[in-house]
Each structure stands twice: as C-alpha cells, then as structure tokens.
Design brief:
Layout lengths: L4 E7 L3 H9 L1 H7 L6 E8 L6 E8 L5 E12 L3 E6 L4 E9 L2 E8 L7 H21 L1
Helix pairs in contact: 1-2
Family: Belongs to the AHA1 family.
Pfam family, one: AHSA1
Protein name: Activator of Hsp90 ATPase homologue 1/2-like C-terminal domain-containing protein
C-alpha cells in the first residue's frame, strides 16, 4: 500500500462548528458524498478511541450502495482524528484552526483497486462537499 494520498481544504467556519458538522451523523448524512448523484441514507458515529463508525453511501437511483466504516485509533477534540478503515488502511485527519477559519488535512493509505488519481479526486470531492455544506448552513 504505497505512499499516502493527501487532500486538503480550508473551511471558513470556527472549529466548534466544523467539528460538530464533521462528526454528528445528522450532518454527515448531508455532506458525505462525492457528487450530487449520491447520498448518505444512514450514518453512525461513536467518536472515541476504540469507537466505531459506519456511513452508508448510496446512488440516489438505487443502483448501488456500500458501507464505509472503521474503528477510531485516536481522537483529540477539535484537533485530530485517526482511524483504521475496515480493510486495514489508516486515515489521519488534522484540523488546524485560527479564529473563524479551519484547515483540514486528510491523509490516507490508498487501496489497490482504483488509480491514485481517482481516489484523490473522490476524497477531495467529499471534502469540498463538507466545506460547502458547513459554510452554507
């Protein structure tokens, strides 16, 4: 599983709002998709070391769906989330905040099926969706 892939975004919102929207299932269901053709009909999140999460991602036309989930390895409120996806890959998310601006850097182990560029663009699209949702709600 070669070098990590990194995506990044700056959200014009205070860390308290960013943290809440990133982690509460009701909000996750509003932003966690890479394109308008997809949605999240279900999300569960037990945000603590050893806690688990599951996000169901589904095509709106009903043609496809899958669960994305894992176990939290480390959680530092408003600063850091590290988790292991169900297939063993690691993800690290760093939140850097100053006033009403929060920078999010997400690094993850690539999977072996899809090209790196596709994985990076998909994760970046989800991050961009988060930025848009958080800044506009």
């Amino acid at each position: 599983m070669g070098n990590k892939i990194t995506v990044e975004v700056t959200v014009y919102a205070a860390i308290e709002k960013v943290w809440k929207y990133w982690n509460e299932p009701a909000h996750i269901m509003k932003w966690c998709q890479a394109s308008p053709e997809w949605h999240v009909p279900a999300a569960q999140n037990d945000l603590k070391a050893g806690g688990t999460f599951t996000t169901t991602m589904a095509a709106k036309d009903g043609s496809m769906s899958f669960d994305f989930g894992g176990v939290y390895d480390q959680v530092k409120t408003n600063d850091l989330i590290e988790y292991t996806i169900g297939d063993g890959r690691k993800v690290r998310i760093v939140f850097t905040h100053t006033g009403d601006t929060t920078n999010i850097v997400e690094s993850f182990d690539p999977e072996e099926t899809n090209p790196r560029e596709l994985q990076q663009s998909g994760w970046q699209a989800i991050l961009n969706s988060f930025k848009s949702y958080t800044e506009n709600n």
